[in-house]
Amino acid sequence: xxxxxxxxxxxxxxxxxxxxxxxxxxxxxxxxxxxxxxxxxxxxxxxxxxxxxxxxxxxxxxxxxxxxxxxxxxxxxxxxxxxxxxxxxxxxxxxxxxxxxxxxxxxxxxxxxxxxxxxxxxxxxxxxxxxxxxxxxxxxxxxxxxxxxxxxxxxxxxxxxxxxx
Length: 165
Description:
Strands 1-2-3 form a three-stranded antiparallel sheet. The chain has one domain. The protein is 56% helix and 5% strand. The protein has helices spanning 23-42, 59-87, 95-116, 132-153, and strands at residues 9-11, 17-19, 92-93. By secondary structure, it is mainly alpha-helical. Helix 2 (59-87) packs across helix 3 (95-116). The N and C termini lie far apart (46 Å).
């Protein structure tokens, strides 16, 4: 079951993107971003996928790394949330704004995946499982993320065979 319009983002000739989400979808994104902001402010343990481990075999190096980048990562997450919130009611967005959407939707999906304990294979849930509805949201966020990346990459040049021999 797909909860999204076929093309929620469409690149226009002027380089901007149409934002084709209905008011309910926009309100859902707004609500999810509010929840993400609350989690970021609380430094919730379910945020662990937002702060990947760089030095798994060296606790001291890992602590130094996290001390160095954690604040920057938090700031970038808040900045992306603000970009999306400022554009939620717009009909058209620019590439930088759509990149903020990509960052925020990815963060939401990572947190929800942590809450649901989703692994590489996903989840195989019965319809009456209490995780079925949140998992459907997780999958829909994945589809939305895919469509954002696809929209942003539409005008990238084709890869060439030129390269090192």
